[in-house]
Amino acid sequence: MNKNQTSKHHQLIIIGAGGSGLMAAVTARDMGIDAAIIERNDRVGKKVLTTGNGRCNITNESTATGTDEAVALSRKYHSNQAGFPLPVLQQFGVRKTIDHFLTLGLPLISLEDGRMYPMSLQAASVLDIFQLALDDRNVPVYFKNIVLDVIYSPNHPRFTIICQTETEEQAVYTSEYLFLCTGGLTAPKTGTDGSGYELAQRLGHTLVHPVPGIVQLKLDYPHLKELSGIKFEGWGHIIVRDDVIRSEYGEILFTDYGISGPPILQLSRKAAFQLAKEESVILSVDLMPGRTEEEVVDFLETRWGVFGHRTVADSFIGIINRKLIPILLKEAGIDQEPHLLCQDLSWKTKKKFYRLLKQWEFKVTDTNSFTNAQTTAGGIDTTELKEGTLESKLVPGLYLAGEVMDVDGDCGGYNLQWAWSSGYVAAKSLANHLSGV
Ligand SMILES: Cc1cc2nc3c(=O)[nH]c(=O)nc-3n(C[C@H](O)[C@H](O)[C@H](O)COP(=O)(O)OP(=O)(O)OC[C@H]3O[C@@H](n4cnc5c(N)ncnc54)[C@H](O)[C@@H]3O)c2cc1C
Q1: What residues does CATH 3.50.50.60 cover in the chain?
Q2: Contact predicate 57/115, CB 8 Å
Q3: What is residue 167's predicted lDDT score, i.e. its pLDDT?
Q4: In the CATH scheme, what is the homologous superfamily, with its name and number, of domain 6-212+375-434?
Q5: Which ligand 1 atom is at minimum distance from the Cα of 145?
Q6: Which positions fall inside the RsdA/BaiN/AoA(So)-like insert domain (predicted)?
Q7: Closest Cα to atom 53, ligand 1: which residue?
């Protein structure tokens, strides 16, 4: 070690003071483990601050009603290894999360769709509570340390962690156990630049190609500027090779680059993975979700019969967003006939309208970038981790928690829930291992 290097040893070092790292540190300390955190930022949980529009949607209690909470909860998660999240969620699910935050001093409240937030409705209070919990337990956090490399040795100490500090001096930390809680690639300004993937890969792990999740979609459509700002309540379906691979319902919003809104964010991970495989991806939207195709035909036939004397454009007033009408006319090829009456509509044009209202198809060209995404789909391959403990099968003493691994959740508090659950379980598993359980 040269004279500019500082060195500290802890039983457990946790890289990353995000949701999973904070939960792991507090839990580990409570179980008698000498834990410390290394964080590149100058404060804990920078990303948590931005969550839930500044209110932090901590978890979601809508799955916590039945007898098998964990099974219902596990359906909100995605991974190449579908069953991987369940044993983690069985150990630390929504109920335990609510109780745990209460014991830390943070009561939660439930708002829309079971989404839970801190009672203060301020994300900052989640971090303040964690900082207080770390202080209460004397858990050191080495801020402004960017981990550049981790060296594993079968001897003691097992892990040597090499960091760059703000003074350009290198800091070297050693530990017997290491938790990688470095997050994925989303919102890189909060400290997550994918360096955790590189550290894991250098230790022998494999990366499942990461793509942006919970993100808006870009569409190839010539009239996006005219559509931009239009909202509607409806279905969105992702179609690949003529198969619908996922459908979601809710408020959809056209934007000047494409499309957004809760259902689109939920659909985005499927679209992103297919685009990464260079598949052609279609988004089909249903503007009349309350009616079947047959009912739409009946409804319009009746309407056009009763109001045969009105223009086609006027026949849509009151049933769809007014701004959509000129674009639908364009799509049906009658925008050059503004005075065309309903009674004069051809069968061919009518069929185009039926299709547009139930299955309006758009070509998806891309997702927005990781900068706009809320989560990373993909990550370190979970087949290389022990189920239910999160310890690496390749490197003894290494555990992963949070978004760094190939597990991502739906929108609605499920990604933070994964951070809490996996952070807790990694710490608990290490404590069990140390006590020989
Ligand atoms: C805008 C936005 C809104 C969101 N809203 C919600 C929501 O309301 N509800 C919800 O459930 N989820 C939400 N999410 C997702 C959720 O925030 C993340 O899934 C979760 O925070 C991931 O936790 P983590 O501990 O795995 O990683 P992170 O919180 O990303 O933390 C990783 C930490 O590791 C540090 N780090 C990384 N590499 C290094 C290194 N080499 N050296 C040192 N430190 C390093 C980073 O600085 C960071 O502090 C949102 C995400 C975004 C971007």
Answers
A1: 6-212+375-434
A2: yes
A3: 84
A4: FAD/NAD(P)-binding domain (3.50.50.60)
A5: 43
A6: 212-374
A7: 374
